[in-house]
Amino acid sequence: MLDFTLTEEQLKLQKKARDFALNEILPVSHYFDEHDQMPLFLLKKAHELGLQNLNIEKEYGGPGLGLIESALVVEEISAADAAMGTSIFGNTLGEEPVMLCDNTAVKNKYLPLFVREPKVVSFATSEPMMGSDVAGMRCKATKDGDDYILNGTKYWVTNGGYADYCSIFATEDPKARHKGICGFLVDMDWEGVSPGLPIPKMGHKTSNTVSIKLEDVRVPAENVLAPPGGEGFKLAMKTFSRTRPIISAFATGAARSAMEFAIDYANKRRAFGQKLSQFQNTQFRIAEMYQKVETMRLLTWKACWEADQGLDPTVTASLAKFYTTERVVEVVNTALQVFAGYGYTNFFPIEKILRDIRVLPIYEGTSEVQRIVVSRHALNDYKAIMPKLDDLKRLKGDDIKKAAREGLKNQTVWRCRICGYSHYGEEPPDECPYCKFPKSAFKKL
Ligand SMILES: Cc1cc2nc3c(=O)[nH]c(=O)nc-3n(C[C@H](O)[C@H](O)[C@H](O)COP(=O)(O)OP(=O)(O)OC[C@H]3O[C@@H](n4cnc5c(N)ncnc54)[C@H](O)[C@@H]3O)c2cc1C
Which residue's alpha carbon is nearest to atom 14 within ligand 1? Predict the structure, then answer.
């Protein structure tokens, strides 16, 4: 059965997240954005309210909720401040490799700790010279007895300046590409780990983004999330399949609030003797924004649903990610156009939303990377329902009125595989009358 009704528990969780977003994030968001500062206290508050670690399983002390619950929560948080969505949800990105790995010792040690205490957990695949091409990472993991020694620099690490732990991906051999990659849970207090300065960004200023330098960092065997041999790469990709639907929820939340602000403004601002909302042009813009917000949420929920059903959500996650993160840019731009000059000021929230959401089609795999995932699926794995073009049979009759009454009789059709022309009769023609290819171009249907 297909059902979009939220349960009582889901509605309660959504309300809790909405109250937190409206009462605690929204009023302070502008101030911290202006000062380029991540408000750490809000991460702690989110933890205290039980809005983090939603997917940690019950056996590790977590609530064991699904991705759909995460999407409900982050839509609300991102509606207030998309960058805070990244900051708060960044923890789940960092924890996901621990949840998904096969190392039960690391799960038993850290997952209950993340539930109990407001630890900040980051995630790092990207490097200064590499983002999209995850298999091309250079940060080196060298085996030393049962331990590994890490050397290199990770870049763009969300919350890295505040992190207690970081899921770090490195390679045993850069030439081995996918096969060389391994994953580790690194304690940020270990010797040799040093975060860089916050990277100055266009938006997402309430989210901290830094590099992490690793100099002879010794990782004990118990903190290996995935050994080399291809498992590390798979672990990173499995993580993205579960976190990309949540980026879609960021996009949905931000688009929703931009639309709501635009509706409010259009009902208030007057031009040429009437409210903006009375111009059909504005009404159509609002309809388009509304249409996009609704379809964004549908695709986000579909990807979450697939994950929660135990299906592989990879393709829908990519689809949702590039659909929603491109639509949000359009919705926020449209909202800014409704505001016009005031939208361009920082007295109103639209310019911040626009700066914040511009990164959504970039991080966790650019829109181009998502297109690669989806096109590979469509071209190689997707099972078509329609017959092959060469097998497309077109029947015909002598009398259209009779055919409309009685239907068409089956008959032998020869289809030209080059130009698609259909020939009727027991034998194919000697050559195609249209493309002039010989008899051999015809297929009997
Ligand atoms: C605010 C912020 C937070 C981030 N947080 C994290 C984090 O917490 N952890 C982490 O590991 N990373 C993080 N990132 C990094 C992010 O995931 C990368 O920026 C992203 O993957 C793109 O990599 P890149 O910037 O190196 O671009 P590149 O890979 O250099 O790509 C440049 C351009 O080329 C295109 N391109 C590349 N390859 C192809 C191809 N095969 N076909 C077609 N086009 C292609 C890309 O789509 C893009 O348009 C963050 C980034 C930002 C900006």
Answer: 156
CA of 328 to the centre of ligand 1 (A): 18
3-state secondary structure of 187: strand
CB–CB of 424/433 below 8 Å?
Answer: no
Nearest atom (ligand 1) to Cα of 126: 11
Q: Within 10 A of 79 (CB to CB), how many other CB atoms are there?
A: 26
Mark out the alpha helices in 101-179 (DSSP H runs).
104-116
What's the CA gap between 334 and 347, in Å, rounded?
18
**Which residue segment(s) compose the domain that 238 sits in?**
233-381
Q: Is 384 helix (H, G, I), strand (E, B) or coil?
A: coil
Q: Among 120, 168, 199, 363, say which to mutate for ligand 1: greatest number of ligand atoms within 8 Å of CB.
A: 363
Please give the number of the atom of ligand 1 that sits closest to the Cα of 366: 47
Pocket test for ligand 1, best of 127, 156, 246, 358 (most atoms within 8 A of CB): 156
Give the type of residue at 124. A
Q: Same domain for 362 and 293?
A: yes
Q: For atom 23 of ligand 1, which residue has the closest CA?
A: 131
- Pairing relationship of beta strands 165-171 and 121-124 according to DSSP bridges: parallel
* Residues in the chain, overall count: 445
Q: Which residues are catalytic?
A: 364
Total of domains in the chain: 2
Question: How many Å lie between the centroid of ligand 1 and the Cα of residue 357?
Answer: 15
Query: Is 35 domain-assigned?
Result: no
Q: Identify whether the C-beta of residue 229 lies closer than 8 Å to the C-beta of residue 179.
A: yes
Nearest CA to 89 among 55, 134, 64? Answer: 55
**Statement: the pTM of the whole predicted model exceeds 0.90:** yes
Distance of alpha carbon 277 from alpha carbon 270, whole angstroms: 9
Q: What is the pLDDT of residues 212-264, one digit of tens each?
A: 999 999 999 999 999 988 899 999 999 999 999 999 999 999 999 999 999 99
Instruction: Tell me the CATH number at 404.
Output: 2.20.28.10
Of 140, 138, 190, nearest in space to 163 by CA: 190
Single-letter residue type at 253:
G
Summarised one tens digit per residue, pLDDT across range 383-398 is 999 999 999 999 999 9
Query: Are residues 353 and 428 both part of a single domain?
Result: no
